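Entry 12.
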Amino acid sequence: MPFSSLGLHPDLQRGVRAMGFTDPTPIQSQAIPLALSGKDVLGAAQTGSGKTAAFALPILHHLLNHARPGLRALVIVPTRELAAQVETAFRDCGRFTPFKVSLVIGGVGYHGQRQSLAQGAQIAVGTPGRLLDHIRQGTLRLDRVEQLVLDEADRMLDMGFLPDIRQIIGRLPKQRQTMLFSATLSPEIERVAAFALREPERVEIAKPTAVAEGITQVVYPITMDQKAEFLVALLRATQIRSGVIFCRTKHGADRLTRRLKGLGFSIGVLHANRTQGQRTAAMEGFREGKTQILVATDIAARGIDVREVSHVINYDLPGHPEDYVHRVGRTARAQGVGDAITLMAPEEQSALAAIEKFVGTVFPRAVLPSFTYRVPPLLTPAKPKSFRDLNWSRFNRRFRKARFRR
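Predicted 3D structure (tokens):
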């Protein structure tokens, strides 16, 4: 089914063609017709599947066919990076339309945002906290909003934004179209949908645990004290066109960045302690190919939209199995191919086992022949203990002692 068969406004079809797209992705082909009909949409699809265009195109189509002044569409996202990505998508899809998009995020001054809103932006894309600031200051009026999008809703819940979202929704007109998109449709998401959407049409493209088929996944066992040394050897032995290295903490990301820069690697860094200007510069340098590798925390797991990421490296394992799926989804986007590499220390085996259980796959273990290991790597996945494998004699001894003490 080509884009031309979806019933989009001719100016939007021109924009899609100018972007080089001819056929919609599965989430787009299913969600766009529902959104064009005016129905509320509850959509789930894996990261990198084209969700942004699935709501941006119907919103622009509605604005083109129902011209009115004022702010007409509001898109709420969890992070600044994702907000910037969504704003860019609106500009790309609507390049042959007259509509203005206002980016409303923290980390930058209020003046430019006030100006953009006052000059008649029809679409606002922002993060919950800064949107609420503008609403309270009276610089963002919601009384004419006809379309609301909650994007990456599961991530917003993880980050504690539910109270802010409830406040914003409470100020919106009751007669509106609402679209909620998420990587998963968990019970928590269902509860949000119950108060935010009206009889939504459901669109589920992939299992919540699915990793894109084009991603090759491998684990390198390595002791914690040799991780940084091993990473350097791996980067030198691997042809990485464009890679993202994920660290668990901001300080860890900074330490690793300093080490790699000192060894001559082309590195950028992205985490919450960076200013908005630094974050924007890091993303632009990475997107334009000036920087080969981006070191990031999970703030970037869903905020990086770069088509040609060839490798994702989990320097630290994520805290939640779901975050693994989001991290590795930075590569093999739009049905491409890529490599996901995980460095696993012995103390991280249980975290890796949880990820393997979540995605339903046991990852192959590998060694780097050119590297000098101080401790031989364990190449056999640890088997989870079953009920029968428990040491019952030790348990019984402890139970008897406990009874005796009582």
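Annotation: The first strand starts at residue 41 and ends at 44. Residues 385-406 have pLDDT under 50 and may be disordered.
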